[in-house]
Amino acid sequence: MNLSPLQKARYDYSPKLPGMLRNGIAEICVRDGAPTESVADQDKIRALFPNTYGKNEITFEKGANTSAPKKQVVGVILSGGQAPGGHNVICGLYDAIKATDKGNVLLGFKGGPSGLIDDDYIEFDDAYINEFRNTGGFDIIGSGRTKLETEEQFKIVTEVAKKHGLTAIVIIGGDDSNTNAAVLAEYMAAHNTGVQVIGCPKTIDGDLKNEDIEASFGFDTATKTYSELIGNIERDANSAKKYWHFIKVMGRSASHVALECALETQPNICLIGEEVAAKKMSLADITNYIADSVEKRAANGENFGVAIIPEGIVEFVPEFSALISEINELLAGSKTEEFNALPDWAAKYDYIKKGLSASAFAVFDILPQFVQQQLFLERDPHGNVQVSLIESEKLFSEMVKSELAKRKAAGTYKGKFGSQHHFFGYEGRCAFPSNFDADYCYSLGYNAFMLIQYGYTGYLSKVSNISRPADEWVAGGMPITKMMNMERRNGEDKPVIRKALVELDGAPFKYFESHREEWAVKTSYLYPGAIQYFGPAEVCDLTTRTLALEKGRN
User: What would be the CATH architecture of the domain defined by 226-311+391-428+501-554?
Assistant: First the structure.
């Protein structure tokens, strides 16, 4: 197999473990913490999870291992979108399994949750595992977005588990995937299958976190990757001095990625969706905010700049969110086919005008035509607008251009405005994991097996104190139900893990807020450069600015 020099070097990297996990499997014991409750809707969550609700948080520490020895056959799946470090979760899990007993087995089910249903798997061995250590991607077994949520699916998974003698299943995924893990754990416990279910927190969006889960894996690497690219663009902008770059970054439901990239690169503009929603900012408000920066910089002779825009920004704009809701109703059921059968855009435009309220159409009508049409592209599986298909970076660029034309006509703006557009998404999902993510993910996988060995189910693998050096990290577990609340999904109330949004009173946003007026006018760019894998720890092992600020370690 042909390998790049970096691949070869990364295979040889030895991930760092929390101190208590370095003592060897035989010297790890459990300390019980307090019983837990769900973050909200306690009575409803308790009723839905009678066998797994209210369990104690636990911490691993040095001491005699008191777990009952037995052969372990563990199944593992990768669920949802890729995130750097997923391979190391599996490697850590595998190494802990084999360190306990060479006869233990790890089966990787292919293509995500559907692999469990289709019984499509591979049995891992040293040679296969070693090809994926410290590498990016999910290609070790692939991933998928099938949801495990029906009685029929659970019965099939139970039969597959019984066929292979599975003692546990580890689900590596985001909030939806770990919600499924909690539901599957409850089913397995209620039916006395003897199969434990453990989750591992993954998402580059950074919205699977709380007081216990300080960061989801992949966020560190993805934001460092995007920040390198943004820094490169900032340097180009400052060199050419003739373009405003509008850069959309991943983050459909929360703006953590945008905020972290702004902290790393200090652009002129960064929109935070949660602030837009809190202030009820309109499209015009946002347009004027960006145009003000363009005008002030132009007055200083700087007809260039950089604006970062989170992927899901339009859903945070109240008037746009209301428009989307009306469009979803307008095209509900068979009406989508009726709309698509119309002969041209003029006919479709007339159909839209008649079907929307006056207030919604007023918002629709100020949008550039390409955005209007993007709102009526292919629907998602629930029949809703696919917001990720809306090129919001081009939307705001066009709206700013129109606003500047008005200001030029009024004589207040005398600059030149040219724009370039970028969307950074897939570029960060499968990068070589940073040392932080390589270490963190390996620890999550190793720790997941310790939870299995001690008989826990319905727990999330938890590694905390991660803003400190790895030997100070603390390993343990928390019941997934602690993170859950009830939300309305497809007309039904369902238990789900609550997404973590950017906290407007949190230290990361407050730091950004205190500097953005200066960044909006001055060229204050930072150039973080590429992820460093070799060298001093203060360069190679540093955590995100978000985590450092949250922990008071700026």
Answer: 3-Layer(aba) Sandwich (3.40)
